[in-house]
Amino acid sequence: MATGDKDHHKADWVSIHKQTCQPLIPTRTSLPCPTTERERKRGTEQLLRRQKYIIDAAFSTAQGLVWAGKHEEARPAALHALRFGIEVYGSDSLQLVPAYLLLAEACTGAGHLPEASQYLSQAEWIILRTPACSAALQHKLHRSLGLFCAAKGDFEKALYHLANDVYLASSTFGRTSIEASGGYFHMADVFFHQNKVDIANSLYTEVTSAWHSFLLKSLQAQQQVPKSRPETSVFTEDREVSEEPLTEAQQVEGIRVLNAIVDIREQAPTQQPGETARVLHALAMLHYLLMDVPKARELGLKAFELLKQLPQQESPEPLGHLLTLMNVEPSATK
């Protein structure tokens, strides 16, 4: 076996085999012929459930590896999700688009741009031939196309697709939603690389505002949880607790995006303490909701120190409330 094949096999095992080996066996082996229509139907339903389980497990594994920056290891898992998706849904189903987009992201991150382009073309072809395709799915396609073009260095085309991403996400989720803010963030990155710093800073402010508002509402929703249910998190599926629970993908994106903006604000030649404090406050709220109280306290205190440098134009009350929740007395901070 060639070295490349060994490496690929190892990556394949790490990313997917551990989760899917047992469910995979019945889908790839011959079973006794059913004697009745009822047995045949039950066997078909069991097979379909196993296949869907494999699709979900493979997709989740690949997505987690992409989030962790392990793009090469994510490729086999994403390919498993796609192959079983084709078996279950057919080769031209909209259900395949997320797998194609995930494969494209994994390939782009691993430096395999020609492969990424092929997967994006497949996703685009399916969406174009499906008039009823939702704007929510179309915005994800345009974001993937925008990131791919940015990776190639084609910034103008990247901005075109990201602008479509923002438009479609805004029409579905709202202009100030965190879904739309992802497109703004990537547009800001492109402008930043083009040295159009003023435009980039304006867009980073939009992103910060969207996350700050969303997380403040999530924090308020958590405080409204009845004391008889202290174990309930803001991320619960129970809609009575929060109208806008964060998914795992949103948690990962929030950490990544807000940390990136903090770095940009802190390294900027001209400091803007108010903007830096705002993004630090948002990041502190996110860590608090993720139950990482020490990190939330560290970020919250840092934001409070920056706010003390400013004229009293912005009320520190929401930040002070967060610090109080963590048993920190803002007025006692040095």
Describe the structure concisely for a colleague.
This protein has 334 residues and is mainly alpha-helical. The protein contains 13 helices and no strands. It starts with a helix and ends in a 9-residue tail after the last helix.
Describe this structure in words.
By secondary structure, the protein is mainly alpha-helical. About 75% of the residues lie in helices and about 0% in strands. It contains 13 helices and no strands. Helix 3 (about 70-90) packs antiparallel against helix 4 and helix 4 (about 95-110) packs antiparallel against helix 5 (about 115-130). The longest helix is centred in the first third of the chain and has 31 residues, at about 35-65. The protein starts with a helix and ends in a 9-residue tail after the last helix. Mean pLDDT is about 85; it is low at about 1-5, about 20-25 and about 225-245.
What is the strand and helix layout of this fold?
Layout: H1 3-28, H2 37-67, H3 71-89, H4 97-109, H5 113-128, H6 135-152, H7 155-173, H8 178-193, H9 197-223, H10 248-267, H11 273-289, H12 293-307, H13 317-325
Annotation keywords:
single chain; 334 residues; mainly alpha; 13 helices; globular; disordered N terminus
Radius of gyration: 23 Å
Structural class: mainly alpha
Largest sheet: none
Shape descriptor: globular
Which H/E pattern describes the elements?
A: HHHHHHHHHHHHH
Mean pLDDT across the residues is 83
Poorly predicted parts: 1-6, 20-27, 227-244
> What is the number of E strands?
0
Measured by DSSP, the beta-strand proportion falls in under 5%
* Helical amount: over 70%
The N- and C-terminal alpha carbons lie at a distance of 63 Å
Structure annotation, total helices: 13
